[in-house]
């Protein structure tokens, strides 16, 4: 397990994404001043720093792996954001905040850890009355994906939904969908897959006699190769949502 953490340590990101994508999604939100922002599953915080550059509010960045938080804290200090970026080691399904604390919740590539619908339901109480949540979620882009890709994701993320399916979950969880944005395929590679693949090559040479680790490395390589072949079949979609009424409350006097 320590070697697997080492495999990922020092990568720019812990999942697909880019500053350009983060800024693009921010441009799709209603133009308002966000004063209290929560970044859930922040990892080493590349998107956290992008949010800090683009927004004037205070940010709480949450992850349950302290080394990632240490990297973020160091980088935030280097950019003079230490007064606005706070790190917190906590679980995303037990966030220690009062109701209505945040006017913007952001989470890139992390909500899958607890499930899209469950995350939306649990985080909703943390938002102000008209607060906004933005998440990127792995999403089927084809109604009939090739069998190889279907088998892989059934094994690794069986809860993956289509855009239509996630849109229904958004409404059922008490949100108004404001916008969606498909992460460009190039944003999977520059800061994530490309450096990860180089690390996989190095680890394969160094630890090739460790059968268990080699199996993990091969699984990571399989994921990268799969996306090269099927990037038009699935991808990360950003969902920007505003807190609204729960379905059962609509129409209530």
Write down the secondary-structure element order.
HHEHEHEEHEHEHEHHE
Helix segment count? 9
The count of DSSP E runs of length 2 or more, i.e. the number of strands, is 8
Indicate the mean pLDDT: 94
The helix/strand class is alpha/beta
CATH hierarchy class name: Alpha Beta
pLDDT under 50 segments (min length 5)?
none
Radius of gyration: 19 Å
- Main pleated sheet: 8 strands, mixed
Number of domains: 1
Kindly state the percentage of residues in helix: 40-55%
What is the CATH architecture descriptor?
3-Layer(aba) Sandwich
Q: Fill in the CATH topology.
A: Rossmann fold
Instruction: Give the CA-CA distance, first to last residue.
Output: 55 Å
Strand content: 15-25%
- The CATH homologous superfamily name equals Vaccinia Virus protein VP39
Q: Globular, elongated, flat, extended or rod-shaped: what is the shape?
A: globular
Would you write up a description of this structure?
This protein is of the alpha/beta class. It has a single domain (about 1-245), classed as Vaccinia Virus protein VP39 (Rossmann fold, 3-Layer(aba) Sandwich), CATH 3.40.50.150. About 40% of the residues lie in helices and about 25% in strands. The protein has helices at about 1-10, 20-25, 45-55, 65-80, 115-125, 145-155, 165-170, 190-205, 210-230, and strands at about 35-40, 60-65, 85-90, 100-110, 125-140, 160, 175-180, 235-245. Strands 1, 2, 3, 4, 5, 6, 7 and 8 form an 8-stranded mixed beta sheet that branches. β2 (about 60-65), α4 (about 65-80) and β3 (about 85-90) form a beta-alpha-beta unit. The longest helix has 20 residues, at about 210-230. The N and C termini lie far apart (about 55 Å).
């Amino acid at each position: 397990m320590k070697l697997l953490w080492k495999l990922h340590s020092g990568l720019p990101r812990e999942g697909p994404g880019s500053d350009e994508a983060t800024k693009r999604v921010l441009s799709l939100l209603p133009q308002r001043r966000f004063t209290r922002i929560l970044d859930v599953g922040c990892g080493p915080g590349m998107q956290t720093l992008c949010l800090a550059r683009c927004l004037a509010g205070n940010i709480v960045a949450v992850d349950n792996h302290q080394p990632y938080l240490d990297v973020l804290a160091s980088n935030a200090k280097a950019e003079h954001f230490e007064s606005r970026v706070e790190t917190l080691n906590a679980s995303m399904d037990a966030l220690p905040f009062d109701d209505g604390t945040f006017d913007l919740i952001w989470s890139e590539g992390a909500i899958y850890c607890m499930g899209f619908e469950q995350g939306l339901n649990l985080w909703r109480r943390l938002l102000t009355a008209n607060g906004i949540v933005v998440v990127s979620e792995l999403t089927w882009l084809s109604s009939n994906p090739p069998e190889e890709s279907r088998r892989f994701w059934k094994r690794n993320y069986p809860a993956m939904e289509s855009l239509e399916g996630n849109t229904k979950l958004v409404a059922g969880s008490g949100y108004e969908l404001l916008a969606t944005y498909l992460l460009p395929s190039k944003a999977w590679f520059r800061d994530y897959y490309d450096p990860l693949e180089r690390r996989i090559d190095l680890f394969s040479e160094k630890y090739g006699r460790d059968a268990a680790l080699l199996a993990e490395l091969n699984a990571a390589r399989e994921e990268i190769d799969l996306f090269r072949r099927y990037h038009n079949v699935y991808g990360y979609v950003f969902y920007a949502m505003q807190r609204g009424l729960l379905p059962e409350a609509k129409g209530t006097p």
